[in-house]
Write a structure and sequence with these properties.
This protein is mainly beta and 116 residues long. The chain has 1 helix and 9 strands, in the order αβββββββββ. The chain has one domain (6-114): Calycin beta-barrel core domain (Lipocalin, Beta Barrel), CATH 2.40.128.20. A 6-stranded antiparallel β-sheet has the order 4-5-6-7-8-9, with no helix packed on it. A hairpin with a 2-residue loop joins strand 7 and strand 8. It is globular, with a radius of gyration of 14 Å. InterPro entries: Calycin (IPR012674). This is Lipocalin/cytosolic fatty-acid binding domain-containing protein. One of its GO terms (molecular function) is lipid binding.
Length: 116
């Protein structure tokens, strides 16, 4: 992905990652567990409101998540590591699968996650 250091690309290329979303009324919690990071990352946010936090390497991240009428979750984000370049990630659940597409500039990364 453009702007991401090569060592991070390699670190995440074959990583096993689990993402858990918990919704309590208007409050959301996203927990990310991966063998590519030293400890779970927990993000607490409200849909439509900007969340400001840090990535696993301690650099800044900002994102705003919404859920569209088709059930997809879309977050608009930017990362200090990438010069705050805008990134859009779309997640859509189909049965026991979640399809994810991340776009930044003219680069797109797509992957599929299984429900556990």
């Amino acid at each position: 992905m453009t702007g991401v250091p090569e060592d991070l690309v390699e670190k995440y290329r074959n990583a096993t990652t689990t993402i858990e979303y918990v919704n309590e009324h208007e409050n959301w919690t996203m927990t990310v567990i991966s063998d590519a990071i030293p400890a779970p990352r927990v993000f607490k946010f409200k849909l439509g409101e900007e969340c400001v936090s840090q990535d696993a390497q301690g650099q800044g991240i900002k994102f705003t998540a919404v859920i569209n009428s088709d059930g997809s979750m879309v977050d608009s984000s930017s990362f200090e590591r990438m010069g705050w370049k805008p990134t859009t990630t779309t997640r859509k659940v189909y049965g026991n699968k979640m399809n994810v597409e991340t776009k930044t500039g003219d680069t797109t990364m797509s992957y599929e996650m299984d429900k556990v």
